[in-house]
Design goal:
Structural class: alpha/beta
Radius of gyration: 18 Å
Shape: globular
Oligomer: single chain
Helix content: 25-40%
Strand order of the largest sheet: 3-2-4-1-5-6-7
Length: 247
């Protein structure tokens, strides 16, 4: 009978208890990433200590929005100005964000969760697992009912896909049930959550999903997975633009 080696398991549990659960939030411009973060903070801030890191290319607009919403103490909301395309700072070179997360964890220890919001990006955006433990990808019904069918690494491989602003569906002629079905098919059955901050039942489902993930993190049973690099895509610039790929 072999001797069971529990050293790695004990190390994983100790590591998970020594730092926060780090959650990435990505999605195109205008889908409501900051609103989702604000909703989550309102839902969980009475039971968990939360910090937020926002990403913008040249501004701190998202951080100022969250501070104005009063969802957390101002000092636990910090902005990173990436100076580059959003996915670079969450996938290619995460140094700025990783330092910001670690500083936040050190300054306000112990934190339960640190949320890292990407700047608005395309459907292929993914976080590096060296930066976050799990990631949301946010779509919204105003982007069109067919957007979930288009797939891409962001939609297909995030730990949770959020279809946001479902209270607007009737105004933009979107069938939410069909959009969720399309998204679930594109994600091969991985979880999809239809959300509106105005529908308390959907907000509670989001909160419970995060609570369950946090419990797994504390137990050392959650293993971050690499969603893989972004797909090649086009960058516009003053000279017309260029295609860019990630390895």
């Amino acid at each position: 009978m072999g001797i069971e080696n529990t050293t790695d398991d004990k190390h994983n549990v100790q590591a998970s208890r020594s730092r926060s659960l780090r959650l990435g939030v990505a999605g195109p411009v205008g889908t409501g990433k900051s609103s989702v973060i604000a909703t989550l903070c309102r839902t969980l801030s009475e039971e968990m200590r939360i910090g937020v890191i926002t990403n913008d290319i040249y501004t701190d607009e998202d951080a100022r929005f969250l501070k104005a919403e009063g969802v957390l103490p101002d000092e636990r909301i910090r902005a990173v100005e990436t100076g580059a395309c959003p996915h670079t700072a969450i996938r290619d070179d995460v140094t700025m964000n990783l330092l910001a997360v670690e500083d936040m964890e050190q300054d306000f220890a112990p934190l339960d969760i640190v949320l890292v919001e990407s700047g608005g990006d395309n459907l292929t955006a993914t976080f590096s697992p060296s930066l976050v433990d799990a990631q949301f990808f946010v779509l919204d019904v105003a982007g069109g009912g067919d957007v979930a069918r288009k797939g891409g690494p962001g939609i297909g491989r995030a730990d949770l896909l959020i279809i946001n602003k479902i209270d607007l569906a009737d105004h933009v002629d979107v069938d939410v049930a069909q959009m969720v079905e399309d998204a679930t098919r594109a994600r091969e059955g991985a979880p999809v959550l239809a959300l509106s901050r105005k529908h308390e039942d959907t907000v509670e489902r989001l909160g419970e999903w995060v609570r369950a993930l946090h419990r797994r993190h504390l137990a050392g049973s959650h293993v971050p997975t690499d969603p893989g690099p972004m797909a090649p895509h086009f960058h516009a610039d003053e000279e017309g633009g260029y295609f860019h790929s990630h390895t």
